[in-house]
Amino acid sequence: MSTGRVAIGVRAQRVYRFTLVSVLFLSAWAASGCLLLSDTSFDASDTSFDASDMSVLCPSESTIVGEYALISAGTFTMGSPTSEPYRGSGEDQHTVTLTRDFYIGLYEVTQAQWQALMGNNPSTFSSCGSSCPVERVNWYEAVAYANALSQSEGFEACYTLSGCAGDPGEDMECSDNVGFSGLDCTGYRLPTEAEWEYAARACTTTAWYCGSNESCVADIAWYAGSTTQPVGQKNPNAWGLYDMSGNVWEWVWDWYDDFPSSATDPTGPSSGQYRVFRGGGWGSDASGVRSADRNYRAPGNRTYDLGFRLARSGS
After folding, report:
1. Closest CA to 85 of 300, 302, 291
2. N- to C-terminal Cα distance for the chain?
3. Distance between CA 40 and CA 26 in Å, rounded?
4. 132-152 burial, b for 16+ CB within 10 Å, e for fewer?
5. Does residue 2 fall inside a structural domain?
6. Maximal C-alpha separation, the chain
7. 222 within domain boundaries
8. In whole angstroms, what is the distance from residue 243 CA to residue 131 CA?
């Protein structure tokens, strides 16, 4: 990754791998919700169990590759229980299975990365510095950036944009006819909403990935503040991802709608009025930085607490 990459003073990264040894911790995993909910008869003494079968277990760890985490496929419970503090509408719990491994950025896309690739900086908080997340980017501009990065690194572009006018980062607007070549695309893209929550939770089922007690939120998130902050400064989740709660909200691929009862590799409705963004921002309260919290706006909307991070399907 050379294009638009900057040193951001990140602490040393540990490489995580899922192995058969993790089966020894099955009881702890079951308590944390990582065991596939439909599999209540799993026998830890069964030596024929294949640890690479991620339909059986939610992976406990990820593999760090440069500035991305490679997340293994698995099954998890998306949404929030009715007992969760601050629970919002549209968070009905349901089982989601992701059948593909995928990469997701350790950090939100920074101002330096955007500037290097797109030649401008739309951020309201430009004085925050080059390692702060880019913001004031609408959804069309986020997918345009993903295409540009794919092309610069020799990958296929995942999106086809039509009816567009203006320049990304300045005044770009498009019709809603954005084509997506699907999850088999090898290029950079926005994560789906399901991929985003799966990655944010990192096999947790609590309101925040640091736990159920609101007192832990300050350790993982920039929130209830007045500006963005450099990425990667708070504690990451168990898969090594930073700022999945707070700093800036993050666009995802999906149109907003109610959740289905269950889903496999969901990409959301085929059309809609609003695109989803997740994670909460620097001005959110604790409710907005929960792993299940959902928000949405028209895809042409841009604001100073909304940015994005990128994903890419695993090979």
Report:
1. 291
2. 17
3. 12
4. bbbbbbbbbbbbbbbbbbbee
5. no
6. 61
7. yes
8. 13
Residue type, 15: V
In a domain, 3, yes or no: no
Any idea which residue has 């951001």 for tokens?
8
- Look-up of token digits 């708070």: 234
SS3 label, residue 311: strand
Mean predicted confidence (pLDDT) in 108-129 = 98
Predicted confidence band at 61 (pLDDT cuts at 50, 70, 90)?
confident
Output the six-digit token pair for 47.
Answer: 């030596």
Does the structure show a pLDDT above 50 at 147? yes
Contact criterion met (CB below 8 Å) for 277 and 250: yes
Query: Domain of 284?
Result: 13-315
Q: Who contacts 82 (Cβ-Cβ below 8 Å, separation ≥6)? A: none
Given a contact cutoff of 8 angstroms between Cβ atoms, the answer to whether 253 and 268 are in contact is: yes
Of all residues in the chain, the percent with pLDDT exceeding 90 is 79
CA angle 180, 184, 185 (to 5 degrees): 55
Position 245: which residue type?
A: S
pTM (predicted TM-score): 0.84
Question: Domain total for the chain?
Answer: 1
For residue 160, the domain's CATH number is 3.90.1580.10
Residue 57, pLDDT score: 57
Tell me, yes or no, whether 53 lies in a domain. yes
